[in-house]
Amino acid sequence: MFRRLIKDLLRDRRLYFMLIPFVLWYIVFLYKPMYGLVIAFKDYSVFRGIADSPWVGFENFQLFFNSPYFSRTLINTVMISFYSLIFAFPAPIILALLLNEVRNRVFKRWVQTLTYLPHFISVVVVAGIVTNFLAPTTGIVNHFIALFGGERQYFLVNPDYFRTIFIGMGIWKDVGFNAIIYLAALSAVNPELYEAAVIDGANRWKQTLHITLPGIWPTVSIMLILAIGNLLDVSYETIILLYQPATYATADVISTYVYRSGIQEMKYGLSVAVGLFNSLVGFILIIAANRLSNKLTQNGLW
Length: 302
What we know:
- The protein is mainly alpha-helical and about 300 residues long.
- The chain has helices spanning about 1-10, 15-30, 50, 60-65, 70-90, 90-100, 105-115, 125-135, 140-145, 160-185, 190-200, 205-230, 235-240, 250, 255-265, 270-295.
- Helix 7 crosses helix 10 and helix 12 runs antiparallel to helix 16 (about 270-295).
- The longest helix has 30 residues, at about 270-295.
- It is globular, with a radius of gyration of 24 Å.
- The chain starts with a helix and ends in a 5-residue tail after the last helix.
- The model has no long low-confidence stretch (mean pLDDT about 85).
């Protein structure tokens, strides 16, 4: 067994040499910084360092769980992630299914290009575009509202609109790029199945329902598992660019609380504790989602 392993390593040595930079990147930037998780259990001081900072145990976790921000950030995070699963997750699937029905290749390529280009635009630029579009005096949305006799509104200071704006912005930015995964899965569906369905008298809707959707279901289930695993990991960069104290009631999430407590208030131990809690919940969710998927659909990450 050992000789065979050595033989395989020598045979594929060039491939393993190519793998070294990626392994080093993971070690340096992902695994080595994990030592910093100890800060969650200490009253960390920049001047004392991690080793010399006093140990406080679970005090930082208790401080977060007993704070008024815990329930607000947790509810907001779950609600935004839930809305993303309901509205944003199916959007690329629907777009891929619609593009799969298009027979004009020129039109199909134009639509694909126009829908996945926003993914490559910086989130700062996209947030600026959204802010300008929704501006109360110069925004195009308020211009249309005023044109039809409505009252101009400042959408970004109204907590009731924040989640809708955030989810809509995310769909516009990533729907085309995420649809590429499902288009690739659709290309793997055997075309002979469609020919047999046509002979049996199945229309396009029945073909989609009984052939297309089951054909891409393994891909959908894996992407759904990953989405559930990231349930508490919302795009905090976008939220930071869009939210303000007036919208904290619906916009403040766990990630933004970590940013404020760690960067702005310099409560490093508390911020690391909150981030660790977020990661542990995500880890539990992805394991539970994978087990449920394996049980119901026989598809999973492992």
